[in-house]
């Protein structure tokens, strides 16, 4: 019987540090849609603003500042210190666009793996 080669798989060349916070931020925004205007909307604001700042930092570290700009806008829009008062349909659209931005920036902001640089 032939055995498989014991050769290890090649490691990935890219590292997506912002993917997990992007998925968490998108999930928080989608979960926060029914909470728009409610008493727990402030909790969603804290979660979204913190995750947006984390992704913006990862995008700047990856030298992909074009992802840091829309994510920083999300951090400003959902900041809990100076909350914006927008109409409910506008917040609904902002939640959907924000979730899509979180997923896109998390999936597309990457850095080369340190092992791949050698």
Automatic annotation (TrEMBL):
What InterPro entries does the entry give? DUF6804
TM regions (residue ranges): 18-36, 42-60, 65-84, 90-111
One Pfam family matching this protein: DUF6804
Q: Which UniProt keywords apply?
A: Membrane, Transmembrane, Transmembrane helix
Q: What is the lineage of its organism?
A: Bacteria, Bacillati, Actinomycetota, Actinomycetes, Micrococcales
Q: What is this protein called?
A: DUF6804 family protein
